[in-house]
Amino acid sequence: MRIIVPISYSPWPLMNINKTYFLKYFSKKYDVTVYFMYGFESIIKQKLGFIHGEWIQEGLHFKIAPRPYLVHDAFTLPLAYISLNLENADICWAHDPITAALYFKAPIVVDYDDPLSQTFPIYSVVERIAFKKQNVKFVVTPTEKLKKYLVKKVGVPPNKIRVVPFGVDIELFKPTPFPETPTVLYCGVLDKWKIQILLDAMEIVWKKRENIRLILVGHADSHILSFASRHKSRVKLYGYVNHNVLPMIFAHSTIGTYPASKSFGGRFSMKLLEYMASGKPIIATDVDEAFLVEEAQSGIIVPRNPKEFANAIIKLVDNENLLRRFGENGRKFAEKYSSDEVAKQYIKIFEDILDY
Questions:
Q1: Which of the two residues, 144 and 67, has the higher pLDDT score?
Q2: Residue 21 class from Cβ within 10 Å (0-12 exposed, 13-18 middle, 19+ buried)?
Q3: d(CA 17, CA 39)
Q4: H or E stretch covering 239
Q5: Which among 7, 39, 101, 187 has most CB atoms closer than 10 A?
Q6: Is the pLDDT assigned to residue 194 strictly greater than 80?
Q7: What is the pTM assigned to this prediction?
Q8: Is pLDDT above 60 for 57?
Q9: Is 7 in contact with 36 (CB distance < 8 Å)?
């Protein structure tokens, strides 16, 4: 089987650790070609492990769409779509509705874990056109909430949708003993709406428990740097780190957090699954994405305000039995979502298409 994976106007789909893992997994079994249509080769190759011109994974190939000299950038992507349709493949694994709409040669499986139409309504038109095409065989989404969105808002027939969750590397992320100093962790994008509740909560916590520390992993802007500067002895900033470094950082934490101030469409949060695999109890706000914590019984879900968040931190720090119970529940839950098992669900979808 030959699978073609187009990368069109954004490298983001393959910046997702799940997608890179799946590519490597698929290429052990099939011939997989990543087809660069508009650049981003160096970014993706580095992410996948293509270093100094040597590729460590047989079966995974790269191809660049023709880019005629002196052709204006405005015509580069349309020409790339024409060349994509000349490629022979058994399946196209697409990650955006535009590619699904403009590719006609082989059956398509479309990943839909970040619906742009929720942010940019104009995309709903493209999605409706794309997902009704006959050669779009399945739309794969990681949560039931996104499936309902596809049915209700985009008009995709339920039998055309497959729910496949994200996976976690349970060999990379493993439980470790809690550190002697209680430490709260946040890992991810440090946008204000994602982090401010936690920052405000820690100000409250430190008035009652001066010994609690905070670890922040992610690119810090001036707002975060100013906060960290005011609390130098209590805050550790790691900045952006490679994914395989995260378990070492997680090992120094007691509690994982998800302090978002608004829901993000019911997406599947990788950080929650990685906290759980690491045996870390979780405190999350009552946003849609916290459903994983509720299902796993791996932590506390609180209203979206700093006082409630602070109270939950103190409650967990003061109750080691609760810490351990939530941590054990999370690990058991995460083991059901191992990356290998999730990749097998994708393979089943591909093989079902070819057997049809």
A1: 144
A2: buried
A3: 20
A4: strand 235-239
A5: 7
A6: yes
A7: 0.89
A8: no
A9: yes
CA distance 147 to 66: 36
Distance CA 48, CA 42 (A): 10
Instruction: For helices 192-206 and 306-317, give the axis angle rounded to 10 degrees.
Output: 60
Rounded Cα gap, residues 104 and 192, in angstroms: 42
Q: At what angle do helices 270-277 and 320-334 cross, to 10 degrees?
A: 110
- Report the CATH architecture of 183-337: 3-Layer(aba) Sandwich (3.40)
On the question of a common fold for 2-167+338-355 and 183-337, the answer reads yes
Mean pLDDT of 127-143: 93
**Residue 162 burial (CB count, 10 A):** 17
CATH class of the structural domain 2-167+338-355: alpha beta
- Over 60: is that where the pLDDT of 52 sits? no
> Residue 136, Cα to own-chain centre: how many angstroms?
23
**What CA–CA distance (Å, rounded) separates 187 from 144?**
25
